Amino acid sequence: MSHGSVQLSISQTLERKRKFPPSHPRALGLSASISKLLAFEMLSFRLVDTDSFKQLMTIAVPQYVVPSRHYFSKTAVSSLQNQVSDKIKCALRNAICGKVHLTTDTWTSKHSQGRYISLTAH
Question: Would you call 117 helix, strand, or coil by DSSP?
Answer without folding.
Answer: strand
